[in-house]
Amino acid sequence: MEKTSSLKKVLINEKTSQFVLLFVFLSLVLFFSLFTISFFNANNFMNILRQSAVTGILAMAMTFVIISGGIDLSVGSILAFSGVILASIAKSGNPLWWMGMIAALACASLLGCVNGILIGKFKVVPFIQTLAMLAIGRGLTMLYADGRPISDLSCGLTSIARINFGLPVMAWIFIATIVISFFILHYTVFGRSVYAVGGNEKAAVISGINTTRVKIMVYTLSGFLCGISAILLTSRVSSGLPRAGEGYEMDAIAAVVIGGASLTGGRGNVWCTTIGILIISILSNGMDLMNINSYIQQIIKGSIIVLAVLLDSVKNKN
Amino acid sequence: MPLKSKGEKMKKRLLDVVFVVAVSLGLIFCLSGSGQAEASGKKKEKITVGFSVYWMSEFSTLMKQAMEDNAERLGVNLLVADGNMDPQKQLSQVENFINQGVDAILCAAIDRNGIVPGVEQAKAAGIPFIGINMYIPNKDVTAYVGPNDVLAGELAAKYIVDSLKGKGNVIVIEGGEGFSATEDRRKGIKNVLDANPGITALAIKTASWDRSKAVTLMENYIQSFGDKINGIIAHNDEMALGAAQALEAAGMSGKVYIGGIDAIKDACVKIKSGEKFATVFQDPVTEGTLGLEYAVKLAKGESVDPVENFIDMKLVTEENVDHYLISK
E strands along chain A, which residues? Predict the structure, then answer.
């Protein structure tokens, strides 16, 4: 009989692996609170929430995609593209600046939809398709913005990232996105089909799920969420930066993997991804406060991703 | 597997979990020893200055080094954060500095607009915000220490125009978009080119401050323009050197004049060896030291003069390159 290691047993059982995740998260909070004076205060927690919102929403998008058995490497580029579209419309003095937000969401969803159609209908491998979109999206962004940042934006837009209602508005939008994503994944037919398609695509087809349509919707949703992220980021840095979001896909994927979702699909949930993104943000924030060299920070972040993926493969052995 | 009591199984599981957590924490703890002690608590008498820099180029590394060398003398606890070319990360670093309660913030901004929220927050918190090396056109910035980049662009362009005796074709290689250095150097170069109609700009394109990107760019331009190229003006030495490399590979070195900015060591060595190369000297040591001194003065509530300190820049050619090589 196979001797299953106790580690694997802990990880396979969803409840205990979530317990481990929470434990790691709380340990980090404890660690930084003890070793860094400026960590455990309300102002820093507000900063952390603000600093997590943009990549956090991308991680929500990534959660849907990874559960469906795919991956989306283009989130950073779609973010940038919708960001410059937004910035070009929401210029200072334009009373219709809010139309920029609608345009941004529309363009982002459109690019996501293109991904979805090529992946769902034409069966292009998600890694390849979204890698191509990463390049195409970035190219479109550079072309549209002529390589230059678009600044001088409307106060209406820039105030979004600065207002607090108790918590920063950015945090509220992030929280709202988490809650809505949770609702979609667990209380709608679409959500359940995402799990089904990711868990076993052949079985999903047999049970009558239109996998093509599910995939198109997943990637379109991913694009839409990138649009929301773009609104927050553009507001936060007060400009449409053509180079925005470079490398953000790595943080999004890391958050989802750390949260315990399986890269092969069918497993994962938004709360664990949220803990994943908070772990990443806390690490970054805490290490900044401890004045740790940013290159060391990168090494640590990479090592944790490797660790999370290793534990994932332990889960999946046999 | 023989019967094990539930307690022992739980222990095994917990052991694995604790192992994973302990390793990660231990890693962080050990590596944190290489970071400096942070703001409050340990060095109350010292002035804490937070320095956020766009990325660690050769130039900014020398600048940081100068600050670190002077920190002891000035009684400063210096915190350094690398923005890694991400404006949002740099903004987060500034927010963290403010939260830590630093006495002053020095910032070499990646994006002159993207950093504005940080400037405003610093002002609201009563912390002096000093721009260094990259100009930030915002009234809430307390002071600025850095190059006159318009002049730098003019000097580099003038060298090429004078060398070509007012007639010829040039390629302009620009720095990364959004950086104030790029915008100002572009202005300076444009001033000179507009005043010299005999010079034609065949192409103006960015290579993002990067040597290898400049190599690729030049290779393509050599393909398109070949012998028509008489001069190259680059926003920094790294790109100028990349262009030189491409010319050498095409067998064209010695036929084209190249003007860069920064006077890094490799560039000075090239000038010394007699090649048609010139650069503009920007002193990272002066900038870093002065920047830190400004930060200390402002943190103590004293005033600085001039508030916007544009450091002089000098054209470096064969005649005076020795002076700059000695100090390397």
Answer: 164-165, 167-168
